[in-house]
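Hey, I was hoping to borrow your eyes for a little while. For a while now I've been wondering how a particular protein folds. The fold is given in discrete form, as structure tokens running alongside the sequence. Could you read through the record and tell me how the tokens relate to the sequence? Take your time with it, there's no hurry, and the full record follows here:
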Amino acid sequence: MSTYPPPFLSLPSYLPHPSSTTPYWRSQVHPLDKHHSTPSLPSACDTLIIGTGLTGVSTAYHILTHPNGPESATPDVPSVLLIDARGACSGATARNGGHLKPAFISLASNRKTLGKDAAEEIKRFAEAQISALDEVVRKENIDCEFRRGKSWDVFLGDEAASQKSRDWKDWEAEGWGGIEGMDGFVEKEHGGKLSGEQLEEATHVRGAKMAVRASAAMLWAYKLTMGLLEWCVERGAQVQTETIALELVKLGGEGDGKQMWLVRTDRGEIRCNKVVVATNAYTAGLLEEYEGVIRPVKGVNSLVQKPEGDQRTPMVLNDSCNLHYGPGLASYIVPQPSGSTIVGGAFTAFKENAHERYDIVDDSTLVPGAEGGKEIGWGLKDVLPKWMKGCDDMSKGQVWSGIMGYTPDDMPHIGRVPGRDGVYIAAGFNGRGMLIIFLAAKSLARMMLEGSTLAQAGVPTCFETSEDRLRKWD
């Protein structure tokens, strides 16, 4: 039996692949996709942000909207430069499921491993993230199909259903109701009140044994990010795409007391006072101390839709859903306004060749075994018609890959990089970045402009990067 996950394998390079599979979300790219604010690379800036996914762009947005930013009377306005190795927002943000969900299974796990207080801190942060994104979408009038709704965690096996039913009862007994709008639904044979038929009717999932429904949100993350990037550019931020960051070097001179850094790229060198490393899975290429701590993991996602010309009513699903087959084995289903649906996860289909997914930075191909549309076949022939009621006729789709950043302790790394004054990081989101990034980026802006701590910025303390966390996984 193969080891899962497989042992860490050091890579010769952590650079993004120059080409990539095309995700549905980038079928039509934004005009800023290959943007160069100036023909040549600027030689200096105050704040350099490496990465133009949601992390990097959100950090720029929060810097520019800070009270010390350009719209205030304060004269010390930071100049912001964002660079990216490929096109703008071409990495994980543009390849995910567009799903914001404080999942019961994660909250229950945090409660066991971190304790009630830390788990509740993470829960509150997740709830605040959804509200913050809802607010910024409305405030900046960004068309990204943001919508609030409900989402299900559905457990299909008897063993998993029994365990999660116990977790739910323990949770309720402690008087901690989970997240806003969370409800548990348990089949009679697992100690609940519902028949199997009633549970299937509620969830639209065949064979459901136990389920938890909670508030969630869905959106087009690429459009959100590019809308924010456009806002930043209009207010003076500079962008240089197709610019590969190769090395981060501390300069000898302290100047006016600010730490000075030099970033070498394939187009020249940039001197800056502050650096934000927003490269997620690719972080170890610039910060070697994160090698093995933030581990690149390749995922596969798909869009499934009705056959072309089919005029029948779109699929019946209104709520998103995570199907849990067993420990660490799940897929997610996110219905789209068009009537199509995102089907992702694929851990069930590709667990046996995990070595082809871990320590991989190449998103120009699918996971071996997914070639020729196997992942689409997995989405169509297995998940939708087998488990989802009313989804028997979905038969056309698109498949792509993306690289996520995973950490050994399942927590992201956010804050000041230990031993590197003036360098900040937000990375290692373990496939759950949409519930973390926007407010994590706000905390980085506050750290840079106010000198605040991560805790003062409202981010869970277990997310903070530190020497202890880095040493623990040496």
About this structure: Residues 116-139 form the longest helix (24 residues).
